[in-house]
Specification:
The complex is a heterodimer. Chain A is mainly β. In chain A, 0% of the residues lie in helices and 55% in strands. The chains are: A mainly beta, B mainly beta. Chains A and B meet through strand 5, strand 6 and strand 11 of A and strand 5, strand 9 and strand 10 of B.
């Protein structure tokens, strides 16, 4: 079964500093990978996704992620964070079994941007 | 992106009563809808997957008689928490996916409090 690991439960970072949120997934023949952001008491908003092609994916709000097949990683990065980036970030993989699919989420990383 | 509307955003009910949560895809046809439960500061736990016109597929450990899911049309799915108890208090989130689209789109979530 597919699984997603987010090693960092919390990441504090100062405003305007760069940040990397780590995500590793269990290996599969083909994989769709996603990063979502969740603000308090809200649903999830898609930041970016990797389906195929270029391993560097750019998303909304200045975020980008790099798909690394050999390391089975899909780390999220932003060169300069803002206070408004404070939120919970979830990495997810789409898992397909017997023709049906579902989304498997990591445990989330709470990004706290400090002034 | 596509819009998924979840209603109500907050509900308080008495122990023993039933509560219905609606999830609507506003501008696309959702062939598959997912229902998640999220505990404070934790990840999303998939409860069930429903395809339009079919019975929902429940994850292991989720009581299908307690959490009734209906996906009667391509734009509406409902989750009914029957005979609610305080331990059912949680944040419930729906998401919807469409054939040919890789990502799922999320509703805003419903905060259920059972008193």
């Amino acid at each position: 079964a597919q699984s997603v690991t987010q090693l960092d439960s919390q990441v504090p970072v100062f405003e305007e500093a760069p940040v990397e949120l780590r995500c590793n997934y269990s290996s599969s023949v083909s994989v769709y990978l996603f990063w979502y952001v969740q603000y308090p008491n809200q649903g999830l908003q898609l930041l970016l996704k990797y389906l195929s092609g270029s391993t560097l994916v750019k998303g909304i709000n200045g975020f980008e992620a790099e798909f690394n097949k050999s390391q089975t990683s899909f780390h999220l990065r932003k060169p300069s964070v803002h206070i408004s980036d404070t939120a919970e970030y979830f990495c997810a993989v789409r898992s397909t079994t017997s023709g049906t699919y579902k989304y498997i989420f990591g445990t989330g990383t709470r990004l706290k941007v400090l002034a | 992106g596509a819009v998924v509307s979840q209603h109500p955003s907050r509900v308080i009910c008495k122990s023993g009563t039933s509560v219905k949560i609606e999830c609507r895809s506003l501008d696309f046809q959702a062939t598959t809808m997912f229902w998640y439960r999220q505990f404070p500061k934790q990840s999303l736990m998939l409860m069930a997957t429903s395809n339009e016109g079919s019975k929902a597929t429940y994850e292991q450990g989720v009581e299908k008689d307690k959490f009734l899911i209906n996906h009667a049309s391509l734009t509406l799915s409902t989750l009914t928490v029957t005979s609610a108890h305080p331990e059912d208090s949680s944040f419930y989130i729906c998401s919807a996916a469409s054939q040919g689209v890789s990502e799922a789109f999320f509703g805003q979530g419903t905060r259920l409090t059972v008193v």
